[in-house]
Amino acid sequence: MEQKKSSNKDYRRQSPQYFLIGLIVALSTTLLAFEYRSPVEPVIVCNPLGQVIDIPDDLPPITLRTPKTTPPPKPVPPKPSDEPFVEPDPEPLLEPVKPEPKVTATIIFTPEPEPFVEETIMRIPEQMPEFPGGEPAMYRYLGRHTNYPNFPQENGLESKLFVQFIVNKDGSISEVEVLNPQGFGFDEEAIRVISSMPLWKPGKQGGKKVGVYYVLPIIFTLK
Question: Is the model's pLDDT at 55 over the cut of 70?
Answer without folding.
Answer: no
